[in-house]
Amino acid sequence: MQETAVLDAAEDLFYERGIQAVGMDQIRSTSGVSLKRLYQLFPSKEALVVAYLKRRDERWRADLRAYVDGKDDKVGAVFEWLHQWFSEPGFRGCAFINSFGELSATSPKITAVARHHKDEVRAYLRGLLRDDSTADQVLLLVEGAIVVASIQNDPAAAWRAKAAAEVLVSG
Amino acid sequence: MQETAVLDAAEDLFYERGIQAVGMDQIRSTSGVSLKRLYQLFPSKEALVVAYLKRRDERWRADLRAYVDGKDDKVGAVFEWLHQWFSEPGFRGCAFINSFGELSATSPKITAVARHHKDEVRAYLRGLLRDDSTADQVLLLVEGAIVVASIQNDPAAAWRAKAAAEVLVSG
DNA sequence: TAGCGTAGAGAACGCCCGTTCTCTGCGCCA
DNA sequence: TGGCGCAGAGAACGGGCGTTCTCTACGCTA
């Protein structure tokens, strides 16, 4: 489907290079969808960015859930999954943190999507832990691990976060 | 001094709106320094961004040190200081995380400055704690608190991080 | 006072952006 | 087969970007 091709191209390019660094022409040539059709599917670049982020949010959380579901140590599994993610070749941090830093001053819609993603992650952790304040602390470790892993290019941040989470959960 | 005026304008505008959203003309009109002189002081926009980030890095860490120095509970004081920062009117997250998300794919120099800032923060925490692996865990809480406070617009993230840090340090 | 060098203001340059429009050509129905 | 409509390719548009250049006017030296 054309919409999927456009979103695939958008995700590859926006995540890899940043949103403002990618023009609509590059989305066109990568997706193979004409500019006219592209604007029929998404009436503006902002709408395309929002669609890209929404799809990524849902897939990201579904992947995390799928990995954690079978495991006994749910919290530990979250950080194992993060470590896997950090180790992927194209890893460049959290798309939502990056978009927020780039565009929160310009676009309330993009700000809202980023906020929603973090809300959902927090809710997921609360469901995993049954103690809200511990879950909120674990969320801080998750976000911190993502930031440190990307900026320092150091996937092992996930293991340090895992060790810290174990202390918080057991304590 | 003109250089200071330019850096002040750059910091205000880049931090508030993002780097790519601010043009050199706006730096000129805000600082009152002519474009020609501006390019004598900083030979390119990238050089100006690097200078802005370097000055901010040093001032940020000096402010943190100044606040923490007198306190008994050094680690607690770090999070108190963060809470103060999060509560400032123009708070929009960490300039280095934001710049990294926006430009790490484009500019190795900016990437290096962001990485250096985080290295220095880590080193500072290690000096405070004398136990490197605990310090690295506290770093995750610091970064996580910054991210959550900015995206959720919730300065209280600092208090949750403080409580978690107390558990990690005492444990 | 005459002449020179410097610095400032802002126009100009080439390029790329997001978005729209035009023009071409192909597929469908009578 | 002839006429119609849709869709694709890409040119066009207005504007903004980073950077450079021109031109003016002022201040110092003799």
From TrEMBL, chains A, B:
Keyword DNA-binding in record: yes
Portion annotated as DNA-binding: 23-42
Keywords: DNA-binding, Transcription, Transcription regulation
InterPro entries in alphabetical order: Homeodomain-like_sf, HTH_TetR, Tet_transcr_reg_TetR-rel_C_sf
Segments forming a coiled coil: none
Location of the HTH tetR-type domain: 1-60
UniProt-recorded name of the protein: Transcriptional regulator
Source organism (scientific name): Kibdelosporangium persicum
